[in-house]
Amino acid sequence: MSACTISPLKSNQELVDQSIPNASVPRQFQANQASKQDAVTVDDAWLKQFNDPELNALVAEALQNNPSIRIIAARRTQSEALMSAAGGSQYPGINAIGNSGSKVGSSGTGLTGFYIGANWELDLWGRVRTSVAGAEQNSKAINADQDAARLSLIATLAKSVWLARSLQEQAQLAKENADASQKISDLTQFREKIGASSFNDVASTKINAAQAQELALNSALARDQALRAVETLVGRYPKAEPLKSTALPALPKPVEPGLPADLLERRPDLIAAEARVNSAFYLADEKRLARLPKISLTAGYGYINSQIFTLVNGASTSFGVGANVALPLFQGGAIEAQIAYQNAEAQAALANYGKVVLAAFNDVENALNGEATWRERSSQLQTQLMQQKQVMKNTESEFQIGRVDQRQIQQQRIKTNSTNISWRQGQVDALAQRINLYLALGGSAD
């Protein structure tokens, strides 16, 4: 009897066409017809591509201990409960009531009895199934939100670990620079005593030494804050304990333009937005179907006995079946108002889907462009570092033959350390851009 079908789900292409009709697919996805084999470098389990054992261990610990993971688990349980609650309306409802009393009871009837009844709405128009389908889509959206939260936790932890490692090295290099600046200041003061330097020279070197010391203090503070951030994400007490390694992983090979656009369909935020659109349209259909008659089958069995009233043949039992029809004739415009409200909600969900799609394409464009820029910048920084190390080596050789004094050695050490700091920061930025690209393209981390 329940043969009417419910509205089908909208396809991704339909959603895109309706939500952003005036937007075309970005050129990054039109460069060529990429095959599935071309997408291997952006496939799932992207965390393993960095080959970082310590990071993998920290991620596993965070997924075990971080409080956000318990929130995610609770939200998933909520979504399952909502879906189960909605699905229960597809089955007959069975209820029982009973009463027991004596002559002096509150009602004075001495009535004893019970009634067990069942009621089942025949879903002729698909109203109940539409409600269940909407609940399933809402549950899907909640689960996708939790997938996004889990991915965000892993990505934030990876970036935080690499930043903390870099800052550990930077703090050490900044301390070496402060020591070198102080040595230069001490040498300049000695030169002033023998008339080789002026008072202004001494003052300048003291200023430089104080600035270098301030920078070292700030670097140490940034290092400790980054280490505490890692410990907080992992679920430990933030004591700012150093990480086991300060090495940064190699950046994976670049991802070329021309990625298949359907990769974005793996993004949790797009999955959630799509599910909310479908849920909203299902709920709008449910409100429209509420204008049609509700037909239900009923069945019941009862027993009744009284110590006051005389019943025919003593105690009475009965069993019966029947059907009832409920048709809303006049509700003061309440149903039409609910339909209008839910239609507007569906249009808002559709517009939000378009907003998420545009943001997804923008994320990919920015990540691809950002990684390419940071790769080039890292290359330039590496060149600077290599050349500066050569200058440092040459200066040490000149010192051995007496062409320069210790001040030039310390000055070149400061320049080398400063270039090294910039180089390591460039590595961290490039790795962060790759994480952003993985998040933009969707897929799981582990």
What is the gist of this entry?
By secondary structure, this protein is an alpha+beta fold.
Give structural notes.
The chain is α+β, with helices and mostly antiparallel strands. Mean pLDDT is 84; it is low at 30-40. The chain has eight helices and four strands; from the N terminus they run αααββαααββαα. The chain has a four-stranded antiparallel sheet with strand order 1-2-3-4, with no helix packed on it. The longest helix is centred in the middle third of the chain and has 67 residues, at 127-193. It has a single domain (12-65, 123-292, 327-441), classed as Outer membrane efflux proteins (OEP), CATH 1.20.1600.10. The chain has helices spanning 12-19, 53-65, 67-87, 127-193, 199-234, 268-289, 334-400, 406-441, and strands at residues 93-99, 111-122, 294-306, 316-326. The two termini are 47 Å apart.
Which key phrases capture this entry?
single chain, alpha+beta, four-stranded antiparallel β-sheet, 446 residues, Outer membrane efflux proteins (OEP), 4 strands
- The assigned structural class equals alpha+beta
Overall tally of domains: 1
* CATH superfamily (homologous) name: Outer membrane efflux proteins (OEP)
Determine Rg (CA atoms, Å).
36 Å
Uncertain stretches: 30-40
Number of helical runs?
8
Task: Using the coordinates above, name the CATH class.
Answer: Mainly Alpha
Write down the CATH topology: Outer membrane efflux proteins (OEP)
What does the overall shape look like?
A: elongated
Strand order of the largest sheet: 1-2-3-4
- SSE pattern: HHHEEHHHEEHH
Quick one: how many beta strands?
Answer: 4
